Amino acid sequence: MSFEVPASVRPVRDAVYAFMTERVEPAEPVLHKGGEEAAEALAGLQREAKQEGLWALGHPKELGGGGLSFLDYVYVNEVQGRSEYGQLALGTYTLQDSLMLHRYASEAQRERFLGPLVRGETFPSFAMTEPGISSSDPTQLTTTATLEGGEWVIRGRKWFTTAANMAAYTTVMCRTEPEDTSPYLSFSMILVPTDTPGYTIVRDTPVLGLDGGHCEVVYDGVRVPESNLLGPRGHGFVIAQERLGPGRIFHCMRFLGQAQRAFDLMCERLHQRTAFGGPLHEKQLLQQHVFDSYTEIQASRLLTLHAAHKIDSAGDGLGSEARVEIGAIKVVAARMLHNVIDRAIQVHGAEGLTEDTPLGHMYRHARAGRIFDGPDEVHITTTARRILREYGKGRNWEFGLR
Hints:
Oligomer: single chain
Mean pLDDT: 93
Largest sheet: 4 strands, mixed
């Protein structure tokens, strides 16, 4: 496989890059503020993306998307990721949920939930994490759903349900089976419209001072039809893993875009400023920042492309054959992003701490990347175990054949 952008993907990648740098990034100050002006700005960007054929590029064609292969989408997503608003403006924010519904939804569910998602008419949300529970071990989740008179009755509390405050529905992972059932067959996914009585958003949980729509939600006897069950009953873990596996790679793709942007800002700053009798770019300690950032970005990019290539080769787009690669890159890329932005802030000095550059906002989001979709420690442990399992079977981990 080539690590350069293929000629076939270059035109659409260039178009997305121009869209991001010329329209999305300049709109960030307005989008950060939220409110009606931000909503109008985002809607305008979405209209332009659709008009220019840049909408939902990673979605399958049969859903109305661009139909890019998983690997080709990496090259596009790494420039789309330059801004946290890229996926919203270009219609790919819904990709994980759209693929989940595409695989498991009934015809009625597809008509009600899936079509509007891909068209950008509605937003999804996903509820798994619970306050007071170590969510890196989801067998401990306490939210329950019981069947009563043809309806699921849901009781519990979730948090970090991202976008619940603007979503049309939430996919809720909850216990549906008796306590003596295997914990990995005890949970199901249920689709809950956010206007259902008993569905109450308690707060937008601030994350390092940012209100990003990470909502805490109470389910107080929420009732939805039995037909709102997504996929087989008791298969919530399977569905969650299929959703989260590729999703972690999507995060890493966007991490690359953020890192590229921070790297550009750092290198440009080094050429703009002088101190102690010479330009900053001639100072060896600052050249160290460039070297370290280059090597970390490049290593992360190659690991991401390798993982995406393995997912693409498997043909199912689920990542089941690339769990070592996904686990490794989720840790490495999140750490890389944090380090690169940190160095860029250091090079900018006091200005890097202000809102005069995007770095402070990026830095806070980057730190969260080491926790969401599984903390570093979990991925390190599961990845090492999978590798060591091969040696336990008398096989080695031959890098040249992996």
